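Report of the visiting student (M.T.), summer placement. My assignment was to run the structure pipeline on a short list of targets and document each run. The first record concerns Helix-turn-helix transcriptional regulator.
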Amino acid sequence: MSEINTPEGISSQLGQCLKAARQARGLTLKQVAERTGMALSTLSKVENGLMSLTYDKLLQLTSGLQMEIAELFNPLVGRLDQDRPVTARRSISRAGQGQVIATRFYTYTYQCTDLIGKRMVPIVAEVRARSLEEFGPLLRHAGEEYFLVTSGRVAVHTEFYAPEILDAGDGIYLDSTMGHAYLNAGDEPARGVCLCTSEAPDLYDQLRRIASRDSPAGD
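After the run finished, the structure tokens were exported:
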């Protein structure tokens, strides 16, 4: 049995927390149903305190919404970031500074490498590969990213969309778990700034390992 009836207080709390979590993500009940594969009527009953869920359904719900299960029993859990103490961390990247990984087809210069545990990894990139054959396998890693072209033209290839051409000043935001590649689509050098973000604590190491696979020294 997927759903269970529980004491009114527990059902009411779960419903309130589900509603708070849904609204915090700007989702409708229909969108929650689509993301989780759960019936819209079931979700409506839960939000209204008329029904609770078994553990497997709670996991299905939280997995679909990419949230911690604790948030369904304490709405403050989803807002912990707002209450985090100010760390006052900062790092300045001067022109020409950064950790460089260079190959025949691209050069990545990682910025602000003195900070550890960053949620965002900023990279200055020069793209030289002009074909997928040169570039190699599409890149995939945790999180999401934004790539802003600063000079030249860049062709963005992804596994689910037709290629797009970006000129200087154009940018693209994409799901980094989707296969993707940036290629030089012009006659001049193509450069850009890429911002990668993820909840994974080892994102920086993941990105360096991926970039290093084609470096001459296999760094």
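The longest strand covers residues 120-127. Residues 1-8 have pLDDT under 50 and may be disordered. I thank the supervising group for their guidance throughout the placement.
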